[in-house]
Design brief:
The protein is α+β, with helices and mostly antiparallel strands. The protein contains 6 helices and 8 strands.
Length: 219
């Protein structure tokens, strides 16, 4: 096979890849738009990343926030969106795509924290080397399941037994959770099916409700 033919086939393959990708992205956008219209939610095809200083939105480059669906939920604002960013270059280049849920209530002060599932021996080694991981006294199952970083006084005050039990029982639902002042971000670690938005929004709402109740008393 000649070099010219190989180059031609490679170009065709690239065009097909981008064409299919654009088709799937548009199909996904229309699904989110339909969900928003059906439920009376606000919808934006694209917009800026969340304005709060979450760790997730400071990572990488080429940050994009798309399919932004939001509504008022019991005295606070809830926003679901498809957030992506790129890390690395060349063969190590990777685009990270996930659906996130941001919940905002200016009347509540949530302590700065980030929480993610523990990654076994790697996190155990990191902890032994002095990397931050706030352990909850008397709750080994929770401390073994998650790595928690942030303001230790605030974490110990706001992560009460109800919050910890809820997170532990739902640890397969989310990838990370972050709190900053009057807002919380849940990263589901993957792009969710728009038709199943209620399951994921419901998780965020239940968790935020628990944080609002306890943080109002202790932080």
């Amino acid at each position: 096979m000649s070099y010219g033919l190989l180059m031609f086939l490679a170009i065709i393959a690239v065009f097909l890849f981008f064409g299919i990708s654009m088709y799937l992205d548009r199909k996904r956008m229309l699904k989110w738009e339909e969900v928003a219209a059906r439920n009376g939610f606000s919808f934006l095809a694209s917009g800026p990343p969340p304005s709060h200083p979450f760790d997730l939105v400071s990572r990488g480059r080429s940050r994009r926030n798309r399919n932004i669906v939001s509504w008022d939920a019991g005295g606070y604002r809830l926003t679901l969106s498809d957030y992506s960013y790129t890390t690395g270059s060349g063969r190590s280049r990777q685009t990270h795509r996930q659906t996130i849920c941001v919940l905002e209530d200016e009347k509540v002060s949530i302590p700065p924290f980030s929480l993610r599932r523990e990654h076994g021996i790697f996190d155990a080694i990191g902890s032994s080397l002095g990397m931050q991981d706030i352990d909850i006294p008397g709750d080994q199952p929770f401390s073994r399941a998650f790595v928690v970083k942030g303001n230790e006084t605030g974490v110990l005050g706001c992560f009460d037994s109800d919050v910890r039990s809820f997170l532990l029982g739902a640890r397969g639902t989310f990838y990370t959770v972050e709190g900053r002042n009057g807002a919380m971000l849940v990263n589901f670690g993957r792009r969710i099916d728009p038709e199943r938005y209620g399951e994921y929004a419901g998780f965020g709402m239940e968790l935020f409700t628990r944080f609002r109740a306890v943080c109002a008393r202790t932080w």
